[in-house]
Amino acid sequence: QVQLQQSGAELMKPGASVKISCKADDYTFSSYWIEWLKQRPGHGLEWIGEILPGSGSTNYNEKFKGKATFTADTSSNTAYMQLSSLTSEDSAVYYCVKGNFSHWGQGTLVTVSA
Amino acid sequence: DIVLTQSPASLAVSLGQRATISCRASQSVSTSSYSYMHWYQQRPGQPPKLLIKYASNLESGVPARFSGSGSGTDFTLNIHPVEEEDTATYFCQHSWEIPPTFGGGTKLEI
């Protein structure tokens, strides 16, 4: 069955970068968009953007341009999101989601603290 | 960006009764054929789960006590009869344009 397995929780210093991975199983990885979302208490769910692994095409929410960068490796069925210049505002749970929003990763908690 | 306003923010319903959650969009998210509105359930510590797609289509495996309706700017999620396991936060989300946005959520207590 379709699964998205995300990398583990990260504790980062302000100003650092973090790279989250999302490994997909049991579907044609290259053919479906991978969406990335952010969830913080009191801020709801925010769409960061998406990548189509087969072509590398991306779409970013204007709000996250310059903050998030998406890549994908079709040989390992893994998508990545790098977040740069981390601040406390980036502390959140991040999800990768298969493009029709039917399957979600378990979430990766990123905590930014000095 | 399209703003989705959910109401109420929280809701307490007795076992076996009906829960109704509303979602209003700041502009229409419907064509004559489709409404680009979807509903999710999120239990604590878990990712959201897709319940209803395109306003009224039940996702595979979702119990029939969940139903969705609406078009244009006004949409509704109904749960009847509610069960204990329905305690969760519910979100609406549109896919009319980029960026897709989510409602602020409705916390349901049974």
Give a quick account of the main beta sheet of chain B: strands, pairing sense, barrel closure.
6 strands, mixed
Q: How would you state the average pLDDT of chain A, rounded?
A: 95
Strand order of the biggest β-sheet of chain B: 2-10-9-4-5-6
The total count of helices of chain A amounts to: 0
Most residues in contact, chain pair and counts: A-B, 17 and 19 residues
| Helix/strand/pairing category of chain B | mainly beta
Number of strand elements of chain B: 10
| Global geometry of chain A | globular
Count of alpha/pi helices of chain B: 0
List keywords for this structure.
heterodimer; A: 114 residues; mainly beta; four-stranded antiparallel beta sheet; 0% helix; B: mainly beta; six-stranded mixed beta sheet; 10 strands
Please provide a written account of the structure.
The complex is a heterodimer of chains A (about 110) and B (about 110). Chain A is mainly β and about 110 residues long. Helices cover about 0% and strands about 50% of the residues of chain A. Chain A has a six-stranded mixed β-sheet, with no helix packed on it. In chain A, strands 1-3-8-7 form a four-stranded antiparallel β-sheet, with no helix packed on it. In chain A, a hairpin with a 4-residue loop joins strand 5 and strand 6. Chain A starts with a strand and ends with a strand. Chain B has about 110 residues and is mostly beta strands. In chain B, about 0% of the residues lie in helices and about 45% in strands. A six-stranded mixed β-sheet of chain B has the order 2-10-9-4-5-6, with no helix packed on it. A four-stranded antiparallel β-sheet of chain B has the order 1-3-8-7, with no helix packed on it. At the A-B interface, strand 5 of A face strand 5 of B.
